Automatic annotation (TrEMBL):
This is Tat pathway signal sequence domain protein. PANTHER family: CONCANAVALIN A-LIKE LECTIN/GLUCANASE, TAT PATHWAY SIGNAL SEQUENCE DOMAIN PROTEIN. The lineage of its organism: Bacteria, Bacillati, Actinomycetota, Actinomycetes, Kitasatosporales. InterPro entries: PcRGLX/YetA-like, PcRGLX/YetA_2nd, PcRGLX/YetA_3rd, PcRGLX_1st, TAT_signal. Residues 47-123 form the PcRGLX/YetA-like N-terminal RIFT barrel domain. Keywords: Signal. Residues 504-915 form the PcRGLX/YetA-like C-terminal alpha/alpha toroid domain. Residues 136-496 form the PcRGLX/YetA-like central beta-sandwich domain. It comes from Streptomyces poonensis.
Length: 916
């Protein structure tokens, strides 16, 4: 897949009302009259109150960016926005468009705030933005790009191995030589034989580009690979974020695995260490140099390179207190001279390491210098991932987000006793076992499709030789760095720790999301406990989310590649999720738990749900999807390893799951992922998703590709719709494919019920079948189809498509006799009726069909899935039945949870006034 044209976001603001030129009418909301001016004077343009997800506001973070949606026609593309705090004081803000409605009006805008944002609520309204007192400035010359926040200045490399050449605060250089480091281990010994050999690779830049240049926020992107000698591998993409007035900056670090690890072989590309490294100049006397390493919570190891506390001789209480606080010590001539005359005999501790090799334990140790023994300095359960090295004349604070959640991680400080200390934030600790991504079994004789289908029938794993490869999966990490003018106070350090652990996020309230009609108008509403029946469903929704949040902790669903995913199915006999049984293990977005979580957030605004969904989006969009190689643009079905199953399909790479996080935060990395899917229809030429079960002759043909109208098309159309809305580089092609494929489905003899069609990659059109066929699957609508169709029907005036979809909604949950009467044959044996009740609800509202409204609640309460008679509670688990104490709800499965959650949320919003 080609990388996104990163200039398009910047150019989007200059795009004329291109969507208005598209020449189609809107759906349920009237389009602005021809020639009318879209602007602040139009309806639905009320100010929006923004608030922080968590208490404390921006804290020590450099800044925050929030996405805000607007109703159709509310604002034109040139609209400016102003921000004020609770006292009416102007807050500097930088605004740019994220998406447009088809009439050319703004659908989503992004707003960046810096250090002046405060900790309270903010009001966003039409108006002229206030300029920051200290503006971001960006300049380019020679081999560097220079970014200044008004407090710190960073020089960023355009070539070579150094990403960040220097970070200065005023005239003082705080850090230099920011680069990436990769340790490769060529082989793994499973026994105790052999000697470990390591190869060190460093970052090599291929391209550096300014994506945004102020005045409040600047973004610089750096792409390249790691290199040693003639070999380059492990592509990286780094984004550096700077905000006006900030003393810190943020790094978003992505690697894509392109190594070779063959099952059964000990040789290959095994990552032994993966990190970000800076050099920190040390100018102060060693007793004025300070080490700070974060422990549990805001706990901190607070030491000096040369400690003068606890000695046999006392330099004086004021001197000791000053060192502990990180303040400059008085002239040694004023100390007790029994200490001063013996300073040379006090050891200088130059090296520190904190290693977090599991989610449950970290250790800290230190030594004087290389070649000498390590001394234990403490430990605990879960470290914050934060550190500081420097002195009274300035120093570098650094932190790695989700430090223990994405273990094994490590922080290193080296040579702090010399003129140059070295800091390394290890995303994969070199003290951990090598990163072993080999497939977990030898195939067990499953060499033919028939044998593989037999395997599927016992372990639910769809195995195929050479398909369980990690080649092309990716992972994104987030880091923060502060250039301090002196050693921060304990209170400052605590705020920096908090920013690392929970990056502050501004948010628009649920009322605005609902009012704007984004993500499917009418599909969600704020929680409502006004009746016992509604309150009970709300209780059930809360119970399910809390249970999964607790299971993440109890079952330790953590780790570099695993954090953010949940398990698929429970083993009631072992009191354990089926982590080791084929397709029952990691969920990989099966039946859309991502959607459940995001809709739960959209309606509630709850920070805990947002953070859970955020971690899942980071995981499922990166680890469960291929970004390089022949399967780029496809994702992998659920399994023991995230990439293990041979079902590589659109339904897992589905852009629908990424849209929420992107539009709510304007996250550029997720934007890349969505853009990369625009051409993923090409993958159907490479891999037929139904290759093992076809009974008819079929060879993929560029002009006649078999594509399903459910799981396949919903993934494709979400990518096309998003590209169109964003006015991305391929938006015209994307728009054409949205419209042509909608027309093609509507023209089929049986519409959506036809099941699939032959698609032409060059024209972007479906051929119209000669005869009607019934091809309905219980999976077709449970990977975001209903949510996507609700958006499309709202956006696009195409009655034939609407009717084709309403018919699908009408008849999935109908009786077999009703299906046969309409289509000539019934739909066969189907399941997931509770989840499909939301299709009944949607069609009931769209068509005014009271029978569908009644059936929606009947299927919700009395079909499959979760029933009111379920326990709706957990049972305590203790040893020896379980590894660690906790709880279980053996009746819960993630498929049912996702579908119940979505059905409950959508049915309440659509038909809450028609509950039985």
């Amino acid at each position: 897949m080609s990388p996104i044209d990163r200039r398009f976001l910047l150019k989007a603001a200059a795009v004329t009302g291109a969507a208005a030129q598209a020449g189609f009418a809107l759906g349920s909301t009237a389009q602005a009259a021809p020639g009318a001016t879209l602007g602040a004077e139009t309806a639905d343009a009320d100010p929006v109150t923004l608030d922080w997800l968590e208490d404390g506001g921006l804290g020590a973070a450099p800044g925050s960016t929030v996405g805000v949606p607007w109703p159709k026609g509310a604002y034109g593309k040139e609209q400016k926005f102003a921000l004020t705090d609770a006292d009416g004081k102007a807050v500097p803000v930088q605004t740019w468009p994220l998406a447009y409605w088809p009439d050319g009006s703004l659908k989503w805008t992004a707003h960046a705030v810096g250090t002046g944002a405060g900790a309270g609520k903010l009001t966003l309204a039409a108006g002229s933005p206030a300029a920051p007192e200290k503006k971001i400035t960006v300049s380019s010359g020679g081999g560097t790009i220079e970014v200044s926040t008004g407090v710190i200045t960073a020089k960023i490399g355009k070539s070579g191995s150094t990403l960040v050449k220097s970070v200065r605060r005023g005239p003082t250089e705080i850090a230099r030589d920011g680069r990436l480091v990769l340790l490769r281990q060529p082989e793994i010994e499973d026994g105790d034989q052999g000697a470990t050999k390591l190869e060190r690779f460093e970052s090599v830049i291929s391209e550096t580009e300014v994506e945004q240049n102020g005045p409040v926020r600047a973004v610089v992107r750096i792409d390249g690979k790691h290199r040693k000698g003639s070999r380059s591998w492990l592509p990286f993409s780094i984004r550096l974020y700077f905000y006006a007035g900030a003393e810190s900056f943020r790094m978003v670090h992505t690697i894509t695995f392109d190594g070779t690890q063959e099952p059964g072989k000990a040789s290959g590309d095994f990552i032994r260490g993966l990190g970000v490294r800076f050099t920190v100049p040390m100018r102060d006397e060693s007793y004025d140099r300070h080490i700070r390493i974060g422990g549990e919570g805001t706990g901190m190891l607070r030491e000096a390179v040369k400690g003068i506390t606890g000695l046999r001789r006392d330099p004086g209480a004021a001197v000791q207190a000053a060192q502990y606080e990180g303040q400059k010590l008085p002239d040694p001539a004023t100390w007790d001279q029994r200490v001063t005359t013996r300073l040379q005999y006090i050891p200088e501790w130059g090296d520190y390491t904190l290693s977090q090799l599991s989610a449950d334990g970290f250790t800290v140790r230190k030594r004087t210098k290389k070649g000498h023994g390590w001394i234990g300095a403490g430990g605990g359960r879960r470290a914050s991932g934060f550190g500081y090295v420097g002195g009274v004349s300035g120093g570098l604070s650094f932190g790695l987000r989700d430090f223990w959640e994405k273990f094994p991680a490590q922080l290193d400080i080296r040579d702090a006793h010399t003129d140059e200390a070295e800091v390394t934030l290890w995303l994969w600790s070199p003290e951990a076992q090598p990163m072993d991504l080999r497939f977990y079994h030898d195939g067990m004789g499953q060499d033919t499709y028939a044998e593989q289908l037999e395997g599927l029938n016992i372990t639910y794993e769809d195995y195929e030789p050479e398909f369980g490869t990690p080649y092309g999966i990716a992972r994104t990490s987030e880091l923060l760095f502060w250039a301090n003018e002196t050693t921060p106070s304990p209170e400052q350090l605590a705020r920096q720790v908090e920013a690392v652990r929970v990056l502050p996020q501004l948010a628009a309230p649920p009322k605005q999301l609902i009012k704007a009609g984004v993500f499917g108008p009418g599909l969600y509403s704020e929680p409502d406990r006004s009746t016992p029946a509604k309150a009970k469903i709300e209780d059930h929704l809360d119970f399910l989310f809390t249970y999964y949040k607790d299971q993440v902790e109890m079952r330790r669903w953590y780790g570099f590649w695993d954090y953010g995913d949940i398990m698929h199915t429970y083993d009631t006999v072992r009191h354990q999720w089926r982590y080791d049984i084929g397709g029952y293990a990691w969920d990989n977005s099966e039946l859309s738990p991502d959607l459940w979580l995001w809709y739960a957030y959209l309606r509630s605004g709850r920070a805990d749900i947002f953070r859970f969904a955020e971690a899942m989006t980071r995981h499922t969009g990166e680890v469960d999807v291929y970004h390089l190689g022949k399967w780029a643009g496809l994702g992998t079905r659920h399994g023991v390893q995230h990439y293990a199953d041979s079902a590589k399909q659109q339904r897992i790479a589905n852009t629908t799951y990424r849209r929420f996080y992107y539009f709510l935060t304007a996250d550029e990395r997720v934007g890349d992922l969505m853009h990369a899917n625009v051409d993923s229809d090409e993958t159907f030429l490479i891999l037929d998703p139904n290759r093992k079960v076809r009974t008819d002759p079929y060879t993929p043909d560029r002009h006649a590709l078999s594509i399903g109208f459910g799981t396949d098309w919903s993934g494709l159309v979400s990518a096309w719709l998003t590209e169109w809305e964003r006015k991305g580089p391929k938006w015209e092609k994307a728009k054409a494919r949205v419209l042509s494929t909608m027309e093609g489905i509507a023209a089929q003899p049986n519409g959506f019920v036809q099941g699939s069609g032959l698609y032409d990659l060059d024209t972007g059109k479906f051929a119209v079948a000669e005869k009607p066929v019934v091809g309905v699957s219980h999976l077709s609508a449970v990977f975001g189809l209903n949510e996507l169709c609700a958006e499309l029907i709202d956006l696009i005036d195409m009655p034939e498509f609407n009717e084709a979809y309403y018919d699908y909604c009408r008849y999935f949950n109908a009786t077999k006799a009703e299906q046969a009467a309409r289509y000539g044959s019934n739909f066969g044996s189907l399941i997931l009726f509770q989840g499909h009740s939301r299709l009944d609800a949607y069609a009931a509202v769209q068509t005014g069909d009271e029978k569908l409204a009644t059936r929606a609640w009947e299927k919700f309460y009395n079909s499959d899935g979760y029933k009111e008679s379920a326990p709706w509670k957990t049972e305590e688990l203790t040893g020896p039945a379980t590894l660690v104490p906790g709880s279980e709800a053996a009746w819960i499965s993630t498929n049912d949870t996702a579908l119940y959650g979505l059905a409950a949320i959508e049915n309440l919003a659509l038909l809450g006034d028609k509950m039985p």
